[in-house]
Each structure stands twice: as structure tokens, then as C-alpha cells.
Amino acid sequence: MASEPLLRLEGVGKKFGLLTVLNEVSFSVQPGEIVGLVGPNGSGKTTTINVISGVHQADSGQILFEGQPVQRLPIFKLARLGINRSFQVPKTFHELTVRENIEVAAAIGRARGADPAAILAEIGLAEQAGTLAGSLTVNQQKMLDLGRALATGPKLLLVDEIGAGLNPAELGGIAQLLTGLAARGIALIVVEHLLDFLGKITERVIVLGAGKMLFEGSLQNASRDPDVVAAFIGG
Ligand SMILES: Nc1ncnc2c1ncn2[C@@H]1O[C@H](COP(=O)(O)OP(=O)(O)O)[C@@H](O)[C@H]1O
Ligand SMILES: [Mg+2]
């Protein structure tokens, strides 16, 4: 692909104390592309999302968004530029209603005129608009957390293990939702353990093992790669 990538990581490193959690991580994401990010527990998937979305700062390397370095920017500025994420453990405002959660997010994002009703319909929570977020089920909280990110009008949406604990019908619905977002031009990095699910939404995966990139390519080839196999058996 010749066009300028939407996102580029160049040699990104992150340590927590003495522990190297990300080591020379480099990859690119094109607009509207879905990239799967997989790896054993503790391999650095969430940390990768955290450094891209500004929750943590990378210690080394560069993160370029639309060609500009963004690794020092705070979360709200990144959201305004078009980077947002959902959380492995959903972070919604429990004491606000579902609709208010979406409205608050829309107010900080770049999506002037984001339509809360459309987002609520898209995430399947239209009927719960007036419900307090704290009384939703965990799965509904995950959808609201995704909706909160969507309400900021992302160009790049980072999705952290949204599939865990969902039944096949719910997973099918999310696969459809995510591919629909990509079709609208939103790029997605999707962290997921459920490889069948991932296979429904993308061909392209990046595999992390102990903070290093072990593999980049098709999901099919990943499962045949000796480093990938060793990391999963070892992990
Ligand atoms: N805030 C933190 N402080 C210290 N260590 C952390 C922190 N966040 C993550 N880690 C460590 O970094 C490693 C990678 O974690 P994480 O990115 O959450 O992995 P994954 O999402 O792939 O399971 C783990 O060893 C984890 O314990
Ligand atoms: Mg994680």
C-alpha cells in the first residue's frame, strides 16, 4: 500500500520499572484497515493500546499519526485528533445514564454533530438510553464503552478484548459492527484471544510475545509460524 499510513509505530519501547514491556515495536495501520493484535497474556497488547491512546507514554521510539509525532500528547488531545479506544475492563460513568455517557464523550471528541441516538442504535443500547450505566450488564457496559469511544469520532479505534465472555450471536453482531466501522473508513486495532472471531473481521494480524513483535502477516500463516507457536505454548 503506497498511501501514507494513518498510524505508524517506529521502534516503540516501554518499561515499567526494570520490566521491559514493549521492545522495538514497529508497525503501520492504513485508514479503514482492521489489524488484529494477539499474543499470550502479559505480552504487551494492552500496553500497546495504552501508549497509542495516551494512557501511558512510550519511553523510546516514535508514534506517528497522520505523519505527525503524537507520543507526548494527553488523552483528550489524541481523542480530538481521532484516536480513541475501548477498555478491557469497561470504563463508563456508572452514575450517568447511557445517553449521558455518549453525550459526554461526544463533547470531548472531534465529531462535531455526533448523533448520540445513531450511536446508541449502532451499539444496541437504544432502549437503555435512560438507564444508569452502572445497572447495565457487563456485556452492555462493553458496548457502551465502545460507543463512548465512537462518539468522539475516531479515525483510529483501539478495541481491547471486547469479545471475551460473549456468546456466538453477540460475537457475530460485534464482528458486523466492527467491519461496518472499517467500511466507513475507521481504522481498527483489535486485541482478541478469540481467533475465530478475529478471522471473521480481518486477515492481518500482529503477534506479540514478551513485548516483541513475533509475527506480522496473515492469521493463517501466524498459526504455522514456529516463533508464534512457541510463544503460545510457552505462555
Ligand atoms: N501499569 C503497569 N505497571 C506495571 N506493570 C504493568 C503495568 N501495565 C502492565 N504491566 C505489565 O506489563 C506486561 C504487559 O501487560 P499488558 O500489556 O497488560 O499485557 P496483555 O494485554 O498482552 O495481557 C505484564 O507483565 C504486566 O504485568
Ligand atoms: Mg490486556
Query: In whole angstroms, how far apart are the ends?
Result: 33 Å
User: Which structural class matches the secondary elements?
Assistant: alpha/beta
**Major sheet description:** 6 strands, mixed
- CATH topology of the largest domain, by name, is Rossmann fold
What are the distinct ligands in this entry? Answer: adenosine-5'-diphosphate, magnesium ion
- The CATH H-level homologous superfamily of the largest domain: P-loop containing nucleotide triphosphate hydrolases
CATH class of the largest domain: Alpha Beta
Q: Report low-confidence residues grouped into runs of 5 or more.
A: none
Percentage of residues in DSSP E strands: 25-35%
Count the domains: 2
Short note summarizing the structure:
The chain is α/β, with parallel strands linked by helices and 235 residues long. The chain contains nine helices and ten strands. 36% of the residues lie in helices and 26% in strands.
What is the secondary structure topology, with strand pairs?
Elements: E1 7-16, E2 19-29, E3 34-38, H1 45-53, E4 60-65, E5 68-69, H2 75-81, E6 83-85, H3 98-108, H4 116-122, H5 138-151, E7 156-160, H6 168-183, E8 187-191, H7 195-201, E9 204-209, E10 212-218, H8 219-222, H9 226-234
Parallel strand pairs: 3-8, 3-9, 6-7, 7-8
Antiparallel strand pairs: 1-2, 1-4, 4-5, 9-10
Helix pairs in contact: 3-4, 3-5, 4-5, 6-7
Bound molecules: adenosine-5'-diphosphate and magnesium ion (MG).
Magnesium ion (MG) binds at residues 45-46, 88.
